[in-house]
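Async update (no meeting this week)

Hi team, since we skipped the sync, here's where things stand on the single-chain job. The sequence we agreed to prioritize is pasted below, unchanged from the tracker. I ran it this morning and attached the output directly underneath so nobody has to dig for it. Comments welcome in thread, and please keep replies under the output.
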Amino acid sequence: MSSAFVGGDGPHLVPLVRVQLKRQANGDGTHRIYGHWSIPDRPGISGARTMIRHNSDQMDRIQNRRRTRSLRPIPENDPDFARLYGLREDTESMHHHLEQRMWNQRARCVGLRRQTLNHHAYQTRTGVIALIAWHYRTHGDLTAWFGLWNAPGTHTVLAA
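Output:
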């Protein structure tokens, strides 16, 4: 999270330091999340602190301006970010990779059985490509997967 302040040379972005996050209950069973942030020492604003609401209120929802789309309580430069947010799920990455390889970036199949077949074919294709790439990189033996198969028109065996 950063804050802007105007100095002699115009506006400057300053990364804020997270002090505390608080969750406060509303009367209807929902909650509000407030972040308490300190502004690093800069000339003229030494020791300044601010409080920012991180989740949307009713007016934000009516105007379709969700705070959670632009405000992160734990930004990427925070020391706790890696511990709390980890990497993207493997299935999300796989689905994104699959969609990028399809015409118009869409799966042209309807129904669970067809989508499942599509995913299994994609996973098989990806595995075979990785296996062949491993063979070319290491000259490893592929006879356990392909036997003594030769590509048509060639006389070399895929085994090293």
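Quick observations from my side:
Helices lie at 58-62, 81-85, 90-100, 112-138, 143-146.
The chain has two domains: 2-85, 90-146.
Reply here if anything looks off.
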